[in-house]
Amino acid sequence: MENVALLKCEQYDVDLIEKKLREGFELLGGDEFLRKLIPKDSKVLLKPNMLSVESKESPVVTHYAVFEAVIRIVKEYSNYVSFGDSPGFGDSRKAAEKSGLMEVADRYGVKFEDFKESVHVRLDNSILCKSWNVAKAAYDADVVITLPKLKTHAMAYYTGAVKNQFGCIPGTQKATWHTRMPDANNFCKMLLDLNTAVGTNFAILDGIIAMEGNGPKSGQAFNLNTLIMGQSLTAVDSTAVRIIGYDNPLDTPVLKEAYDSNWGVVLPKDINILGEKLEDMKAKNFKLCRKGGNFYFINPAVTNFLRGMIAPNPTLIQEKCIGCGRCAEVCPEKPVVITMVKNGDKLNPKWNMNECIRCFCCQELCPVGAIETKYSTLGRLLKLNKR
Ligand code: SF4
Ligand code: SF4
Asked: Which residues form the 4Fe-4S ferredoxin-type domain (predicted)?
């Protein structure tokens, strides 16, 4: 049985969040638990979600008040605390500054790591990927505490504790992984291996204001008033997806792959939720990005063929597009999938869907939310799109 602490917190007030997190640690075992988690003066790396350069109140990134509350507690156990991330697009230092994380870190003497230096890691007990280049600062840390933001995600349906560590892959190397792992299932296996390689020790999920709809960057803020913490990343994620509307955690690709690979605790019956009752915290009318719904035919080739035909497509919201070309820039696929074409007096992206691997990097990193995911008619007929 794996413990997670589920806490209700309705404001980004640092004193209140600190109080809640202390309650959470108390439920998990108090000072003794913390001493084991953070041996005295060990090197602790905090990994917030800094997806891109976003302003302080943005629901895209981990809130600076959660970050500060975590630092206050962690600093009682170690003086060697650092933080870092590698955004999907843009400079990590600028992302840390604009989101308010850098100012907090400077006040507490927490060192910034830009995650540009990588180290090669070999993982013999992997599910899928044995060879890794990961951010040296994350790999070298004795304790890695991930601080994800609870959001929807076009490819993985949901992003939380497991997915947050994708930022431990430096810069443009992230795009390579999308090309190597074009389908969501293998991509999620890769994420699990990455967490093993980095050695993530604990997760504190910021779901005070979460993101619904066209996540992980262009959805809407949703007051979920939730913090979830625990040692098992999958148990934290499993609890989170049940709160936002997945009755079965196995309907989300990361948790399905984790369960199939026996990587962490996933099933509700194996998770002991401490603190708030899950039923009391369930969101009403949270707009999921994608809803699970597996279908199988006797012949696996038919299943795979149909999966390709029903997969959602990146689709332009014409009136929002500013013609910046970032979507074409971040697309990892070769030959070129997106070309910028003239449309009146501006440029718009045009997709060659025969080459698209549906990684949704274009959707994720469009600065104005001008790309959404849409199912084909067949996909809708098969009722895989239930939003
Ligand atoms: S879709 Fe988004 S990223 Fe692509 S050109 Fe338009 S605004 Fe830029
Ligand atoms: S067009 Fe978008 S979804 Fe398709 S491969 Fe490129 S980035 Fe991925």
From this structure: 312-343, 347-376
